[in-house]
Write a structure and sequence with these properties.
The chain has about 550 residues and is an alpha/beta fold. The protein contains 23 helices and 19 strands.
């Protein structure tokens, strides 16, 4: 593999020196992982998608006419490229991939020297696609069968050429798809930009070629404000995840942030983002996309698969506990000295034990401050965050375990297996788009359990469940009361005892749950859609329709 990659890069250096330089830039390639069968897979969150193809099969329709060039959309591990170069020696091949690490994977397995030198093969990386788009109608497009969904934004552009309204959206997790689809509905041509798998120079090249009216990002990302300022474009930033910035160590932007319009789902983060140097900040609650989240009619087979008296969809957070424990001890030792590790372990254990006595409120800020009296506030806040993540995992396991007698089923990571002794049914990961609607519709009660340090927020889970017409038991908060009519549009609980009492009540009285779920869905459609939130962001940034 290494020899093949080196030989191919040497030829690329001769024929396409700029591409050779781009492929050598250091990037995070940890998302491409070995597969159990010896091939390769693409890791995205909990989802691992196969990249290697045991047998290449291309339909006659995809091959088009003999005089058409073959356009390979996505390279994967290179099997399709190797097949096309061998099986169709008279046809030109244009091979594109978004990801430099993916292209390097292909170049590690497929020898391209002869085809590249002869001009029969063209390699396109990332935003090179933009120059090819006008000629796509004349190409025979062959989509990688396992990558087309991952590259959905570019796939959309193959049949919808770039228009006058152009936006770049940063890749990420929650809400990125919803934001992308809404911008497309509003007539924007949307091009994706990775912040972890592309080098800084590649991101600059992308913005220079697209020349977007704005960059849209879910969550705060280091260096993004400066990147957009240098490119002369606005930045719309919607923070939906509390772990994306560290207010205890604010990274001040390099210059004015008048071009940045920051929105956060959490009221208390407004001041924290301003302290980080952002000028235009306001709270903007989360929402649901009714195009994606809606009631579904379940077949008998689907009903049997997804039906549950009570369900919870989300991470157990158990698997991240060791990392947070180590972070806590590392921070403690930095302050108290390298020999204080055992002391730090005792401080953490004592704080967690006291927190377990009351899971309805976050006691850790006071507990840690008391145990670390005299420490700088910023150091205490870092310790609190580490402890809060650990306590949140414990809280979820405890809360779910106490509902085992009601037949609760959980969907998420492997950490939920810790609840097996409490008669909790673990159902495995839930596909974000394939499974969620069915789960929310088939469950008699959908449970919401937030992080311990997020008890003041309204999670996206609540909006999505209601949009599907499902019944939800949410954690009570001031923001929840601002957004919904309690016991009319949404049901809620404040303590473990109240949760158990209400689960028992609504399982026994489903006729009371149904009208609340229906009213909740109407509330989401009337007041809390992604379309409404995006319209607000665009208006704040100066766009009018």
């Amino acid at each position: 593999m290494a020899e093949t990659l080196a030989a191919n890069l040497a030829v690329i250096d001769e024929e396409l020196p700029a591409l050779g330089e781009r492929l050598r830039r250091p990037v995070d390639g940890s998302h491409i992982v070995p597969a159990a069968d010896g091939g390769f897979a693409l890791q995205k969150g909990l989802t691992r998608s196969r990249l290697s193809i045991p047998r290449v099969e291309i339909s006659p329709e995809a091959l088009g006419r003999d005089d058409q060039a073959l356009f390979l959309f996505g390279l994967g591990a290179g099997e399709i490229l190797a097949h096309c170069l061998t099986a169709y020696p008279q046809r030109q091949v244009i091979a594109w991939d978004r990801d430099p690490s993916m292209m390097r994977l292909t170049l590690s397995h497929v020898s391209i020297a002869e085809a590249l030198r002869s001009g029969r093969l063209r390699l396109l990386l990332g935003c090179d696609l933009l120059e090819e788009l006008p000629d796509i109608p004349e190409r025979a497009v062959i989509q990688h069968p396992l990558l087309w969904a991952a590259y959905g934004e570019e796939l959309f552009l193959l049949s919808h050429p770039m228009g006058e309204r152009q936006a770049v959206i940063c890749e990420g997790g929650l809400f990125v798809t919803e934001l992308t689809l809404e911008l497309q509905r509003r007539g924007f041509s949307v091009y994706p930009m990775s912040l972890s798998h592309l080098a800084l120079e590649e991101r600059r090249l992308l913005l220079g070629r697209v020349r977007p009216q704005f960059v849209a990002a879910i969550n705060c990302h280091e260096g993004l404000s400066k990147l957009c300022a240098d490119a002369g474009c606005k930045l719309l930033m919607w923070e939906v995840d509390p772990s994306t910035h560290d207010p205890a160590d604010p990274a001040q932007p390099h210059q004015s942030t008048a071009h940045v319009f920051a929105f956060t789902f959490r009221g208390r983060y407004v001041d924290e983002l301003r302290a980080m140097g952002f000028e235009n900040v306001e709270q903007l609650p989360l929402a649901a996309d009714p195009h994606l989240r809606k009631p579904v009619q379940l077949s008998p087979e689907s009903a049997a698969r997804y039906a549950a008296p009570v369900s919870f969809v989300g991470m157990s957070m158990v698997e991240s506990v060791p990392a947070w424990e180590e972070a806590f001890l590392r921070l403690f030792c930095l302050r108290q000295g390298p020999d204080s590790r055992e002391q730090g372990r005792l401080v953490l254990a004592d704080a967690l034990a006291k927190q377990r006595r009351d899971l309805s409120r976050n006691l850790l800020p006071e507990l840690v401050a008391e145990m670390c009296r005299g420490w700088p506030e910023r150091d205490c806040r870092r310790l609190v965050r580490c402890a809060s993540e650990i306590a949140s995992a414990e809280r979820r396991i405890i809360t779910v375990s106490r509902l085992g007698r009601f037949g609760i089923q959980v969907w998420g990571d492997e950490g939920w297996r810790a609840t097996a002794g409490a008669k909790v049914t673990y159902r495995g990961p839930a596909g974000h788009y394939a499974d969620l609607n069915a789960i929310y519709c088939a469950s008699r009660i959908n449970l919401d359990i937030g992080r311990l340090d997020q008890l003041d927020i309204v999670t996206m889970r609540n909006f999505d469940i209601l949009a599907c017409g499902g019944f939800v038991l949410a954690e009570r908060s001031i923001d929840l009361e601002k957004l919904f009519q309690i016991d009319t549009e949404i049901a809620c609980y404040a303590t473990q005892a109240e949760l158990e009492q209400k689960v028992a009540h609504y399982l026994a009285h489903p006729e009371e749950a149904r009208p609340i779920a229906a009213a909740g869905r109407r509330a989401v459609l009337e007041r809390h859609t992604v379309s409404m939130r995006v319209a607000h962001m665009l208006q704040r940034a100066g766009w009018r329709y």
